From TrEMBL:
Protein name as it appears in the record: Protein argonaute
InterPro entries recorded: Piwi (IPR003165), RNaseH-like_sf (IPR012337), RNaseH_sf (IPR036397)
UniProt lineage: Bacteria, Pseudomonadati, Pseudomonadota, Acidithiobacillia, Acidithiobacillales
Piwi domain boundaries: 406-710
Molecular function terms from GO: nucleic acid binding
A Pfam family the protein falls into: Piwi
Family designation: Belongs to the argonaute family. Long pAgo subfamily.
Length: 730
């Protein structure tokens, strides 16, 4: 059965183009593009600017160079995308961007929201195409992707006229090319003038007619509530289903094929009139690989390739060594929700008889004995109320010369909209962490789930609770090699009250290492601002190597393999030099390393016709399907057709692994299989993860510590104690 990518080979002719070559200067390049937009094509290439024209005439004097289209695919692909933009512009369309080119359909039938609301509305959900070029096994391809995009058709005066509160909301300004750029957030409205705090922190005044509300999810949801009141949740659920169905494999492929057929008939015309044709997508079925299922290790070193089954049959890995049996658990909840919360906690601990996977509860599934539970109610649902209840709980346990093994804290979905200083969620974590007590939060809204859904939710929640208390549910079995292996994950999170001057980016670092044939998540974790990231990376790496070399009894001359996973755009020279500086201090070992970039946002999709008849996930590949894009790139599906939960779920996205050229270890098949296994190693859920734990755990560390650092009195040194040795961030 054929498997295709949404990538179409470009037929490159053997002719050449002339170009004018001048020295590169960024200001000069910007000026030339601004003055001669649409007339000439300007491309930076190293220390030069290449200028292409229709007739061999150029706006400046320079050296003439002949470029063979077949010998310089980079320039050819650049000219192909320029040709696409010229074509769409000639049709009075407004393409935006270049890497990739974005084209939003403005046809009324391509507005998904119109079919739901059946009325004129300032928001739209349009069909969006993304078009780019990519090299696959040293050949140029045209990649066409299709998804949806929210848009706002009316300016801010419309919303003011409809009594919609714009205070604190982000707004955008339309550029000449149609792209809407973030302007800032509204702080004051005077008649038709808006006071807006801009990204540099300065406040400016703008005409309401020149400014548009940002088409964000929050603005969209709030305006639906404003116009449709109690119908809001039902409408938003309809929108979710419509978008998911639109992104299904069969619909996505049909849309992509329609645009592909257009290019097949028209070709792509370069600035000098050269026509570039595209071909049909190739059948890559014979070139695809299928990764083996990961194997997990449980109590008494028993093994299974299904975590749920292994845990039920053999018990957790630390069943015989876990030191918090008969745990003391405190529950913090709102006074008027106490009865329902008590019922919920009992189900968590004792299980649900009707649940397929959670009939024994946290106590039975993880062999914990009988929990000692005490409930502390909050008088009010604000920080003050939660603080009082938590302090009462901590004081009571302290008076008994003990410590809570776990805190269950009930919060509300609405807390997500609060600033961190006013949010009981973060204050609850900080107060319990200060006393080395792990925390598991749950929303009151979770209690309204159907028994079927609640069983799955509690099953995942119990797994996280066990790990937070210091237990190890399972280990991930690795095939022993001649090398000692250490994998470092680098994640990040944007935290802060605003996206401008007040917000900042936090980097998270976590480590996983291979011991006696099993991967163990290390307790070394950090979160720092980007400026301190390289220093933190060398510190964490040095500390972890020291700790593991003693634990694993490394010998002089042993081979040590360091593998770095990151979801950043690219590894920079500072990161690589930071690693090399650590390596230089371990001269007794043979050290090799790999820098692996993991990308979700790449636009490539695999369509597998063997699943065309399935009820859900039509055309979706199976989990573990791979396709090698080059010597250093691999497309891997960490989530596949069987992992989709319902018919309306969209097409699963694969990730692309890219090995940095400075790496000394470059076995891409080995690295792909390892990454695939790590996507099953999360103790946050039994379901496979769309990203490996090296990335997802690091992101969670960054997000949690980033927000906690904004609370007065918080200090990361709190995590040095026992709490920091558990998976507290799950």
């Amino acid at each position: 059965m054929p498997i295709n990518l949404n990538a179409f080979p470009l037929q490159i002719p053997g002719n050449s183009l002339s170009a004018c070559v001048i020295p590169y200067e960024q200001d000069r390049l910007n000026t030339l593009r601004a003055e001669h937009k649409g007339t000439y094509v300007f491309r930076r290439q190293g220390d030069s600017i290449l200028i292409f024209s229709q007739d061999g005439q150029y706006p400046v004097i320079g050296k003439t160079q002949t470029i063979s289209l077949k010998d310089d695919f980079g320039t050819t692909c650049f000219l192909v995308k320029d040709g696409l933009i010229r074509h769409f512009t000639s049709l009075k369309r407004q393409p935006s961007g270049f890497n990739p080119i974005e084209l939003v359909s403005i046809k009324s039938e391509d507005n998904l929201l119109a079919s739901i609301l059946r009325e004129e509305y300032p928001f739209q959900i349009y069909v969006r195409y993304k078009i780019d070029t990519r090299f696959i096994n040293e050949r140029p391809y045209l990649v066409i992707d299709c998804s949806t995009r929210r848009a706002v058709g009316e300016n801010c005066l419309y919303f003011i006229g409809n009594n919609f509160d714009l205070m604190g909301r982000y707004v955008v300004a339309e550029q000449e090319d149609g792209y809407r750029k973030l302007l800032g957030y509204v702080t004051k409205i005077e008649d038709e003038m808006l006071h807006i705090v801009q990204p540099d922190g300065k406040t400016g005044m703008f005409q309401g007619r020149d400014v548009y509300l940002e088409a964000s999810r929050k603005n969209f949801d709030d305006y639906i509530l404003h116009t449709h009141g109690s119908q809001k949740d039902a409408i938003i659920e309809e929108v979710r289903k419509a978008i998911s169905s639109f992104n299904s494999g069969d619909n996505k492929k049909a849309r992509i094929d329609k645009l592909k057929k257009y290019f097949l008939s028209k070709g792509i015309i370069l600035i000098d009139g050269t026509r570039i044709d595209i071909e049909e997508a190739e059948n890559i079925q014979g070139a695809c690989g299928q990764l083996d299922k990961p194997v997990f290790v449980f109590n008494d070193n028993r093994e299974a390739d299904w975590a749920e089954k292994g845990l039920s049959q053999y018990g957790p890995y630390t069943k015989r060594t876990f030191d918090r049996n008969d745990p003391s658990i405190c529950v913090i909840c709102a006074e008027h929700d106490k009865g329902r919360v008590e019922q919920f906690v009992r189900k968590l601990l004792k299980g649900m008889s009707e649940s397929k996977y959670f009939s024994n509860g946290l106590e039975g599934k993880f062999s914990l004995g009988t929990s000692r539970v005490e409930v502390f109610a909050t008088g009010t649902e604000d920080v003050s109320g939660y603080k009082n209840a938590i302090e009462t709980a901590i004081r009571k346990k302290s008076d008994d010369s003990g410590r809570w093994d776990l805190a269950l804290v009930q919060v509300r979905q609405s807390f997500k909209t609060l600033d961190v200083g006013d949010n009981p969620y973060y204050w609850g974590k900080s107060l319990f962490f200060l006393h080395q007590v792990p925390v598991q939060d749950f929303t009151i809204e979770l209690l309204t789930q159907s028994p079927y859904s609640l069983g799955y939710s509690l099953n995942n929640m119990a797994l996280a609770c066990y790990a937070k208390m210091g237990g190890v549910p399972w280990l991930l079995k690795s095939s022993p090699t001649l090398s000692h292996e250490l994998v470092v994950g680098i994640g990040s999170a944007n935290v802060g009250p605003k996206r401008e001057a007040g917000g900042h980016r936090i980097m998270g670092i976590t480590t996983v290492f291979s011991g006696d044939g099993s991967y163990i998540v290390s307790n070394t974790s950090k979160a720092v601002v980007p400026e301190a990231y390289c220093d933190a990376l060398t510190s964490v790496l040095g500390e972890t190597i020291q700790k593991i070399q003693k634990r694993m009894n490394w010998q002089k001359g042993d081979t040590i393999r360091l593998i770095f996973h990151a979801s950043v755009k690219k590894f920079n020279k500072e990161e690589i030099e930071a690693v090399r500086s650590v390596i230089r201090s371990y001269r007794d070992y043979q050290i090799e390393y790999a820098f692996l970039k993991i990308s979700e946002d790449h636009g490539l999709h695999m369509f597998d016709s063997s699943t065309a008849g399935e009820q859900k996930g039509r055309l979706a590949p199976q989990r573990g399907k791979t396709f090698k894009l080059s010597k250093h790139e691999m497309l891997v599906y960490l989530i596949g057709q069987r992992e989709l939960r319902q018919e309306t779920d969209g097409h699963p996205r694969g990730v692309i692994l890219n090995i940095h050229k400075d790496s000394t270890f470059k076995d891409i098949k080995y690295l792909s299989a390892q990454l695939y296994s790590f996507a099953s190693h999360s103790w946050r859920s039994y379901f496979p993860n769309p990203m490996p734990v090296t990335i997802s755990y690091s992101d969670l560390i960054a997000r949690n510590l980033g927000w906690l650092n904004q609370l007065p009195g918080w200090n990361d040194s709190i995590m040095i104690g026992k709490i920091g040795q558990s998976q507290w961030f799950l």
